[in-house]
Amino acid sequence: MPIFKLGKTHIPHRKNTAKMAAVRMTPPTQVQISMAQHIGAPAVPVVKAGDKVFVGTLIGEASGYVSAPIHSSVSGTVKKIGEYLNSQGRKVQSVIIESDGEMSADPSIAPPVIRSFDDFSQAVRNSGLVGLGGAGFPTAVKLDAEKKGLLKKIVINGAECEPYITSDTRTMLDDTDYVKKGVELLLKYISAEEVVMGIEGNKPECIEVMTALFADNDRVRVEKLPKTYPQGAEKMLIYNTTGLIVPEGGLPSDVGCIVMNVTSVAFIAKYAETGMPLVEKCLTVDGSGIKNPMNVIAPIGASINDVVEFTGGFKDDVAKVLYGGPMMGIAVYSTDDPILKNNNAIVALSFKEVNHNASNPCIHCGRCVAACPMGLNPTAFAKALKVDDKEDRASRLEDAKINLCMECGCCSYVCPSRRPLVQNNRLAKADLREIRSAAKK
Amino acid sequence: MNKLVVSSSPHIHTQNSTTRIMLDVIIALLPAAIAGVILFGIDALVVIGICVVTSVLSEMIFNIAVKKEQTVGDLSAVVTGLILGLSLPADATIWWQSIIASVFAIVVVKCMFGGLGCNFANPAATGRIFVFIAFSTSIGRGVLPKIAEVTTSATTLEAIKGGAPEGALPSLFDMFLGLRGGAIGETCILALIIGFVYLVLRGVICFETPLIYVGTVFVLSLIGYGSLEIALYQILSGAVVYAAVFMITDYVSTPITRTGKMIFAFGCGLITFLIRFYGSYPEGVSFALLIMNILSPYIEKWTMKRPLGGKKA
Is residue A260 domain-shared with residue A122, that is, in the same domain? Predict the structure, then answer.
């Protein structure tokens, strides 16, 4: 293991809900289930208005290799299928289902028969599982690296490095048996030598439970990670647990690794046992704009409002609502937006905490350069973006390796001048993409 | 429901700010300023006051004149004024030279290049050099401390340069406390070390940059003069420690990378020694700084880390 670990930015932990077991919310009267809840091609609706659906009924079919099926999270009647503007500003198809309040499971649901890797991969595909750490990459696609015989290590992400979020903590403490069964399934069907589970040092109880859980299995190793951010970022996690470096433009499988979130692993075991696809998600509801922070199990497609109302509501001075944590989370325009598969938190911030300070000039202090876990220079992107000549601008951005930026937020967090560095990097990436694709035409 | 704020992540930020950093530097400069006033009397306070007030006023008037947003609130002009004032001798008769130095530092070196963050050279060091060369008879004069019997006439560096007779130099301990001729803030090494410790503890500067600079001057002097005693006098006299803590640690005019800062400090040490050893000036700290300021962008380019997993371009 590397002695000098990467990702050393000190940010507040704020794990206020770590000791609160998740509570299943009362089902909402209506859900809005988006067909684009994963990286890749959106799913295609296979139901129409008026159809009767149950919990777990397939309502959207995967529409390509990198895609995932979508299932109903309530029982009731399909009311409408329409296009809605999501929080990233894209129009996505959504299925609106009116709940009958019964939450009755689809009668056709049965545990999958798994005898081979192909069965296993197909089961994961049918379950609708996407990376639950936040990125939402279809899990079955990741597993297919096995077919190429590339996998040597399975890295399980229990870092949960974002402030506030404790949903993975609760998985490790409450769904301990499923984590164990999930790891055993992976070891059975994937020819990896070892499983490494990385857990940030701010969760000693999880490290204790997981270490004890796998004490008799010498192919599983639990690694304690520094209490600094961003330990859960894929490339940091791989390096800090195995010493391997994912090359530029490459995937974890290029160095023989597959990275899975601990909640994804537990879900695989649950699915293998029950056959119930991914229709609900444990979310941490917390932040200075929330009255009663807690962990909630919510059906996919419930609105943010429904979930927060269940916990006791927003405070009056709420000014910002996020899908996810405050470092990488997405600010929503409307609290009517639905819960997605890859959400693991709803964080609401009060007016006081939302940063209204104007940014000051860069004083060249180098804090962003020191903080970047990827070893990039955020000030170089800012300078390059000001160059007028398109070709020159693009080549400067490429030289400074803009595409290695994972938008973890460390640079913006530490900047004493409040420079919008991450936002700048996003603009730069989009700009580079545009210039390069225009050049191809 | 209130209207929601939508912005790019991250949604939380450090409590640190540019103004807080500037305030920390001011706090770190206070021991040296207080020591200067104790050592050199009320004249020291007059010079410091003139520099700070002129610096702030110049920036304010410049911003009004060119219709720029007012920036004096960030305290950076106060820092420049303080650093400049402390690098001048405690002599109330140089009041108008102090004004010229401050106006030059703020208007020409800083504001005309675009203000905070845009100057390529250290404003205080450049302002000092400007008046040092223009008014060499009045500024270069070593003013002696008023609180104790100090018999040496010239500055220690001039004495060493001229082949100091036995017993003509203050003791090393007196040098450490500041009982020697020199600029207001540079003589009391004890006060400077207090400032250094404060800045390191507050995370404003890296601890190694000042140490590398002082270390380089020390080691090269040891080799050059072949005497431990003279090497110690070399680092305790002139502006070496003062510049180490407050000038070569300037953010704007030094490389952004940590390794770059180390190379910068080494380069400053090397040039300081070369000027002192071979040059005709007894002191070379500000010149060394200015030369390295010019090289800074190149050092920065050479010391940029290779990103994790990044292919060689």
Answer: yes
A224 & A203 share domain: yes
Upper half-sphere CA count for residue A268 (Cβ side, 13 Å): 31
Residue ranges making up the domain that contains B81: 18-302
Q: Which residues of A touch B119 (CB under 8 A)?
A: none
Taking only residues 79 to 118 of chain B, the set having a beta carbon closer than 8 angstroms to any beta carbon of chain A reads: 115-118
User: Is B18's CB within 8 Å of A362's CB?
Assistant: no
Q: Provide the pLDDT for residue B284.
A: 87
Number of domains forming the structure of chain A: 3
Do both A399 and A376 map to the same domain?
Answer: yes
Specify whether A225 is located in the same domain as A144. Answer: yes
**A251 part of contact set with chain B, CB < 8 Å:** no
Measured between CA atoms, the residue of chain B closest to residue A313 is B1
Q: Which residues of chain B have pLDDT under 50?
A: none
In chain A, which residues have their Cβ closer than 8 Å to the Cβ of B117?
A: 361-364, 417
Q: Which of residues 96-135 of A touch B (CB under 8 A)?
A: none
**Judgement on whether residues A175 and A249 belong to the same structural domain of the protein:** yes
Could you give the 3-state DSSP secondary structure of residue A198? strand
Structural domains in chain B (count): 1
Q: Which residue in A221, A206, A230, A349 sits closest to A290, CA to CA? A: A349
Distance between A399 CA and the closest CA of chain B, angstroms: 7
Share of chain A above pLDDT 90, in %: 91
